[in-house]
Amino acid sequence: DTEVTQTPKHLVMGMTNKKSLKCEQHMGHRAMYWYKQKAKKPPELMFVYSYEKLSINESVPSRFSPECPNSSLLNLHLHALQPEDSALYLCASSHTSGGGEQYFGPGTRLTVT
Amino acid sequence: KQEVTQIPAALSVPEGENLVLNCSFTDSAIYNLQWFRQDPGKGLTSLLLIQSSQREQTSGRLNASLDKSSGRSTLYIAASQPGDSATYLCARGGANNLFFGTGTRLTVIP
Is the pLDDT assigned to residue B1 strictly greater than 60? Predict the structure, then answer.
């Protein structure tokens, strides 16, 4: 199984809402990633978790809060977002964080109104 | 600044043609080079991964090459099909990150 799943597929939220994005993999990978992709742009790294510990935060605003409850799950908690945060949020995993092949999920299309 | 550039930005070819997509990168500290396909509004599908010690990888009609000394990778697609229409992204693998190119939008005309 080389699948990374993400829920929900689509999310519309107001600027005062709190919501969460979920990512799951069962490949035994120990590194998981969140990327943000704006329309017609390449994905940009937000966070990296290695062995369930946050190893990289690419200066992401605190209104985005990642969580890795176990080695298979990665969440992204959202609070007080801005309309410019609307984007496709992609989760990925790899065997380890040391330059291994990354497998991506289908993404969550987020719209902030 | 670590830059990854893809040329051309868009490409239209008739069905059956062979084609080459280009990727160049400025940082020689490369762990691997990964090629992805992305359909509109969808996630990324990994096509080929070339480790830094390798020079090429093949999968079906796809062949990717890597030349670290010149900072270039190419993706060769043989006998293109309408189903190949998508955006193709290359990504330079660093220690903890992928640095993506801007992509080439490919249209294969039946």
Answer: no
